[in-house]
């Protein structure tokens, strides 16, 4: 007979037990160790928040081990973002993070401990997938950031409308970009600040669970440009409609900006 999600959670789980580390910290460290893209890290945080939302709605005191939950979120996200890693690639560094005493031995593969942890991780992934209803096409701000930021930055381009006006940086040919060593927009300081804002939003329970990713993306860009003094006296509604996207609800955008300003 198939087990319910609650029954699976209630069953004893093997943990990479060790010093206390919250799930977000562990996900962040492992993503760096495994060289996973930022988009994968963001999706991991969203999955973690979806799990926490499920727990609150069920009002259940049962829950997955924090460390194994982090591994499950990162593993499922890596597959969803086409950046999969082997199970051992998750478990061995996780074991090392949780057992940092000088005399701690590395996790051997194969070994009874490894087999037990592998089984637990697979079980936790299944629990997470059930909570997500096997829907992995979850949007994050990183899906919309390049396009929205490109449009928002056009006002600051070098094209003055004259007959000999220069072509906007992103519209130039690949050869011209290479010849003039034009950096990609997403490599600029503004884009890096926007990505940091977007990643922070994915960690936030409210923003990750109750706000559309498009509205959060626009809010990230607006706050970064505003705080850099690039939007003096700009009306939020007009900026959103004319410079980013008309498909975003103004109320969602304003609420996202307000929520992020309070963080």
TrEMBL record:
A Gene Ontology biological process noted in the UniProt record is: regulation of transcription by RNA polymerase II
- Pfam family membership, one: Cyclin_N
The Cyclin N-terminal domain is annotated at 23-136
Q: Out of the domains of life, which is the source?
A: Eukaryota
What's a single GO MF annotation on this record? cyclin-dependent protein serine/threonine kinase regulator activity
Q: Which InterPro entries match?
A: Cyclin-like_sf, Cyclin/Ssn8, Cyclin_N
Matching PANTHER family: CYCLIN (PTHR10026)
Know the name of this protein? Answer: RNA polymerase II holoenzyme cyclin-like subunit
Name the source organism: Diplodia corticola
